[in-house]
Design brief:
heterotrimer; C: 308 residues; 9 helices; 13 strands; elongated
């Protein structure tokens, strides 16, 4: 008779490696990225994030196509004089889309965990409140950076392909790359921090989203109108409260030229130091508040 | 304790559906004074049934009468019924006494303060009555809600999981309270998942499974009616195998198992037969019986068997 | 694995004040290997003690050590702890399989091991095909299993269960208690189990701790409280009087006790007298066993539970 064995598939104690807080933070980070992009959560969860990314990339490509068409119409030499929108303008143009993207997607990373009580399961693991929020911030930051950079790369590729000699184009314009990378990071950091901070104040995603959209979309015409009414220094300061422009001013400073969107903003009159400090205030202070709120979180 | 013969609550051919979901299906029973336990798995239809019995919900079919009158749309009847449902929040800012008083006023209780004192005294919360209920523990909130249910001295009490969160001491106190209230002639319907406690206080039980009445009556009698289930009786004696050999000769015995620790477990279809024959067989074989214990003699076993069927 | 006898949990003069409420008042106890029950009213003492052990809440004074460490200072020790909260805590749009894998990773397990351990844990807690569906559609019983699963998936030394049978019907409750017993007896994981139901504690725990008003009122082995006494309890379905007479004729002293009879401090010969008396009186024997004290008797007195 052939031999037979019964294997023990009962509970086994775990004697393998335990990677502690580092693994915990990495797991929360990965989960944050997956949540933001709707990965592993069914088709419906992917619609919004990927839809937005599609729109953003399209904007970059459309701009490239326009530039290509213009170049064919007026000739490559004259295209510069048309002053078409380019890398330095892209963030100004896409800022509203980016803000709405953040408004809609960022709350997914924080609100659900608190609303459904999952946060309590995180807090009893080798993970502090600050570990959690830093990992979530990093996750959304990665997604936002990708969302800001992709259209720029799309534009770059489009412009290079449209130019008579792509390699020459790149050689002449390569400085654009580090500029838009840096400006993209600035844009992403600002948006990520404000969106997550808002999400940390409510357990309902919809409230956070609506508040953020209102915040970004409503302050724009309101402050613009008021600033031009009042004029002068007061008008300039009012214009500083146009929240959609704050990172775009930094973008302008990096590129050394004023973008289409901020051309007429009175706040642009302030010195670079003031604009950068203002940006930092609006990014670092909310960041600190966000960190503080989660550090002290107890069930 | 005297038991009146007139049923207080009559449920006749009652069904309730919500679209295609049948929550209660053709249920008929009567409830008399004393304590009746209402049992069943989650989602079996108990809450729907309780709501129909108190007139809070309409029936889809059949009739519910309380004290001979229809239960539905009968405001004077509500004065005679006290209901404590499972999930209810109370205003955290309200003081316990105020809450009970408010419920008393809603029911038109005469001599309100005396009634409130009595109700709060019954649940032993006189010390805490002036504090806001937000500061109470969950067990205390449940007890104050019970006081509010008792303030108008109702003849019928419908209690749905009244002891959620109460500690063992409060549970013992509550059982005594229920018995006292029943002795005063009240009709109490108690829905609970804690079968050990229902077994101790209830005179009869109603078991609802999937919207149907699966069993009613005293649990021992219900057990006896489940004749497809053999009784399990554990016996410890000084010569287990010899006793097993003798016991297996009984016609009503299906099987005898011998445990590694030397006890034998007899599976019998006729427990009365075994109860008489076991000592006789032991005596005839000069075997000393040390221990005889029925293993499925509890409400819990009965419940388990009925749910599995 | 801790050497036996060494304390897994130790509370020392543990006190916690919340504004004007005293949640814990100078509580001290140690918990070693096994299943320990914390009994008491809902809220206040029990949950607070558990949260302090887990490092989520800071005590006002005193200390609470887990595996010899303070979990709020040394966050890594939580990799060896499991917690099953009473309230809802599962994300509704994620499947049990994915969630348990994620939780295992957050407890420090490398991703590949996390996946296989999650699958094994789901099998041990009784979740099969449903594990791939989003948890929003689960029944209460299934959710309880996942909650227990996430507490066990990283193979902790001890798990804290906060009212694990809350909301379960009798069958579900029995299944959960069986899982709790299995957790210790088969998996070898110690359990600290808080409940307001004595029957839960009696049926599963080796030791109990009783809290009332934030104070420790009782602590000891369950067996110690419910041990068998020296009296024999006999219950017959009919003809009790005939049995009493037959017993007295044989010189056995009996007292009526509820539905049955008790015989004090029996010697060997009494059993045969009882047997013979039963046959003579033709009294159908329902039960004959040493009288066991129930845990409820601890709470029968109106004052603080009396020490046995």
């Amino acid at each position: 008779m052939t031999a037979g064995t019964v294997f023990d598939i009962g509970y086994q104690r775990y004697t393998g490696p335990r990677e502690g807080r580092a693994r915990a933070r990495l797991a929360v980070f990965k989960d944050g990225v997956r949540t933001a992009l709707g990965l592993g959560r069914g088709a419906r969860a992917k619609v919004l994030p990927w839809g937005f990314i599609g729109i953003l990339v399209s904007v970059g490509l459309i701009m490239a196509m326009i530039a290509g068409a213009a170049s064919r119409i007026v000739g490559a030499a004259n295209v510069e004089q048309l002053n078409l929108p380019s890398h330095s303008d892209l963030y100004g143009i896409t800022s509203i889309i980016l803000f709405v993207f953040a408004a809609v997607v960022a709350p997914e990373l924080l609100c659900r965990d608190r609303r459904e009580g999952v946060i309590h399961l995180y807090l009893v693991r080798p993970l502090t409140g600050s570990d959690y929020i830093v990992a979530r911030w990093a996750a959304f930051m990665v997604v936002m950076v990708a969302a800001t950079w992709l259209p720029q790369f799309g534009l770059l590729v489009g412009l290079a392909m449209g130019a008579p000699a792509p390699v020459d184009y790149l050689r002449e314009h390569w400085l654009d790359i580090p500029k838009f990378l840096a400006a993209g990071v600035a844009m992403a950091a600002y948006t990520t921090t404000l969106a997550l901070l808002t999400a940390s104040f409510t357990t309902r995603r919809a409230y956070a989203s609506v508040f953020l959209v209102g915040l970004f979309v409503i302050t724009t015409p309101f402050t613009t109108g008021l600033a031009s009414e009042i004029g002068g220094t007061a008008g300039q300061w009012i214009s500083m409260f146009n929240l959609t422009n704050i990172p775009v001013h930094v973008n302008d400073l990096i590129f050394g030229e004023v973008s289409e969107i901020t051309e007429h903003a009175p706040a642009g009159a302030f010195s670079g130091a003031v604009l950068v400090s203002w940006y930092l205030a609006w990014t670092l202070v909310p960041g600190a508040v966000l960190w503080w709120r989660y550090r002290r979180l107890a069930p | 304790m005297t038991r009146h013969q007139t049923p207080v609550i009559r449920v006749d051919g009652v069904s309730r559906w919500f679209g295609s979901v049948v929550a209660v299906s053709d249920v008929t029973f009567e409830i008399r004074p004393g304590i009746t336990g209402l049992l069943g798995p989650n989602g079996a239809g108990k809450t729907t049934l309780l709501r129909m019995m108190t007139g809070l919900a309409a029936v889809s079919h059949g009739t519910v009468t309380v004290f001979g009158e229809p239960a539905r749309d009968n405001p004077p009847l509500y004065r005679r019924i006290g209901v404590m449902s499972e999930h209810e929040t109370v205003y955290g800012f309200m003081r316990g006494r105020e809450f009970v008083r408010m419920m008393g006023r809603l029911r038109g209780v005469a001599d309100l303060d005396a009634a409130v004192d009595k109700a709060i005294g019954l649940v032993d919360l006189a010390d805490a009555q002036h504090r806001p209920m937000g500061t109470y523990s969950r067990g205390m909130r449940q007890r104050m809600r019970l006081a509010a249910t008792l303030v108008h001295d109702p003849e019928i009490l419908i209690l749905d999981e009244p002891l959620n969160g109460a500690d063992p001491r409060q549970r013992v106190h509550f059982q005594r309270l229920l018995r006292q209230l029943a002795e005063e002639g009240r009709t109490i319907v108690l829905s609970s998942h804690i079968l050990e406690e229902v077994e101790q206080v209830a005179d009869t039980v109603l078991l609802i499974i999937n919207g149907k009445l699966a069993a009613s009556g005293g649990f021992r009698a219900i057990r006896a009616a489940l004749n497809e289930r053999p009784y399990h009786v554990r016996v410890i004696c000084d010569e287990p195998r010899r006793l097993a050999a003798a016991v297996v000769t009984l016609g009503s015995v299906d099987a005898v198992n011998v445990d590694p620790d030397g006890a034998i477990v007899v599976l019998s279809r006729n427990v009365r037969d075994l109860q008489i024959e076991l000592p006789r067989l032991a005596q005839a074989a000069s075997i000393s019986l040390r221990r005889v214990e029925p293993l499925d003699d509890s409400l819990e076993s009965v419940f388990g068997y009925l749910v599995e069927r | 694995m801790m050497p036996t006898g060494e304390a897994l949990l130790a509370a020392h003069h543990l006190t916690k004040h919340y504004q004007d409420v005293v949640a814990l008042d100078d509580v001290g106890f140690t918990i070693s290997e096994g299943i320990t029950g914390i009994l008491g009213e809902n809220g206040a003492g029990k949950s607070t003690a558990i949260k302090i052990f887990l490092g989520l809440v800071q005590p006002t004074s005193g200390s609470a050590m887990v595996l010899g460490l303070n979990a709020s200072e040394r966050v890594e020790v939580r990799a060896r702890l499991g917690y099953m909260p009473e309230h809802d805590c599962l994300p509704s749009h994620v499947s049990a399989a994915e969630f348990l894998t994620h939780m295992a990773e957050v407890s420090g397990l490398p991703p590949s091991t996390a996946r296989t351990r999650a699958a094994d844990t789901l099998r041990h807690t009784g979740l099969f095909e449903e594990r791939y569906r989003a948890m929003g559609g689960y029944s209460t019983g299934m959710k309880q299993r996942v909650k227990l699963g996430q507490a066990l998936v990283h193979d902790p030394a001890i798990v804290f269960l906060d009212e694990p049978t809350a909301g379960l019907d009798p069958v579900g409750r029995e299944e959960m208690l069986a899982l709790v017993r299995k957790t210790h007896r088969e998996f070898g994981i110690s359990v600290l189990f808080s409940s307001h139901l004595m029957a839960d504690v009696e049926r599963t725990c080796d030791r109990i701790i009783v809290l009332r008003g934030g104070r420790l009122v009782q602590s000891g082995e369950v067996g110690h409280f419910t041990k068998e006494t020296e009296t024999v309890f006999i219950e017959v379905d009919t003809n009790r009087d005939g049995l009493v007479a037959a017993l007295e004729r044989r010189g056995v002293a009996v007292t009526a006790d509820g539905a049955g009879l008790t015989i004090e401090g029996p010697d060997e010969s009494v059993y045969d007298h009882v047997r013979d008396a039963l046959v003579e009186a033709q009294a159908p024997l329902r039960r004959m066993a040493p009288r066991r004290r129930a845990l409820t008797e601890l709470f029968q007195r109106d004052g603080e539970g009396a020490a046995p």
